[in-house]
Amino acid sequence: MERSKEQDGSEKPTGPEHDSGAPGLSLKREIGLWSAVSMTAGCMIGSGIFMSPQGVLVYMGSPGASLVVWATCGLLAMLGALCYAEMGSLVPETGGDYAYILRTFGSLPAFLVIYMFVLVARPAAITAVSLSFAEYALAPFYPGCSSFPQITVKIVASSCILLLLLINFWSSRISTVVMNVCTAAKVFSLLVIVVGGTVVLAQGRSRAESLLFAFHNTTQQAGRIGMAFYHGLWSFDGWNNINMVVEELKNPKGKTEIHKRGIILNSYCQHSY
């Protein structure tokens, strides 16, 4: 597919459907640099970082091995994000994986990928995140309870999904503002945890001798190690979401810098946590 440059410097596909003289559709470029950084960091810093540490520690069996898993997952996420930053700069099209597979392998593989993504992968991820949000939101109303009424959890989760759906449907600018606020809140909460842990260590409330046994009881089972990596990679998920809205960025050619800043911010928060 051939491409042509418009007056603003962005590239648009050309072909029979674009050369017919009919006006083409284009998305409004309302997402700036810091909003894109906030979107990348906000998508990555989600419910996973607050729920996955327990799973990683349980499956690995030792804090030292858990830190190795977290560092490896962070490295994999950073490499993937940098690759996607280059792909987003070379192919400034909205759609992410769909756009790249369409250009590389053709329409059928691209259709199968987006079909599974829309009907299976994305709904499952949204459901998991919304249920986690519902449990955290209901915790203050059920003090001392280890479980909550499932119907209440589902109602809160469904309401959250519908609210975010309406916000994104109404305006990308409003959704960007909401994303910025939520990202700031999540980063602030992680910083509170990191600073609190640092203060406790400085006060000597943690035994330094435990560092000598950091890798004690580390599991050797491949299945448990795989589950630990699954929890770690789940918390880092979201590094490729900015590629879904490339055509809404004000400067798509700056995507490499966007990804670098977002990944650095997220990696610092998660590794400190």
- As laid out across the biggest beta sheet, the strand order is 1-2
End-to-end distance, in Å?
Answer: 46 Å
Runs in which pLDDT lies below 50 for 5 or more consecutive residues are: 1-22
Percent range for helical residues? 55-70%
Note the total helix count: 9
The ordered string of helix (H) and strand (E) elements is EEHHHHHHHHH
Overall pLDDT: 77
Number of strands: 2
Largest pleated sheet = 2 strands, antiparallel
> Which structural category fits the helices and strands?
mainly alpha
Radius of gyration from CA coordinates: 21 Å
Shape annotation: globular
Amount of beta strand? under 5%
What does this structure look like?
There is one protein chain. Helix content is 66%, strand content 3%. The chain is globular, with a radius of gyration of 21 Å. Strands 1-2 form a two-stranded antiparallel sheet. The protein is built from nine helices and two strands. 25% of the residues are buried. Residues 1-22 have low confidence and may be disordered. A hairpin with a 5-residue loop joins β1 and β2. By secondary structure, it is mainly alpha-helical.
What's the layout of helices and strands?
Blueprint: E1 2-5, E2 11-14, H1 33-44, H2 47-60, H3 63-90, H4 97-105, H5 107-138, H6 150-170, H7 172-202, H8 222-236, H9 255-272
Antiparallel strand pairs: 1-2
Helix pairs in contact: 1-7, 1-9, 2-3, 2-8, 3-8, 3-9, 4-5, 5-6
Considering the chains and any ligands shown, give keywords for the structure.
273 residues; mainly alpha; two-stranded antiparallel ribbon; 9 helices; 2 strands; 3% strand; disordered N terminus
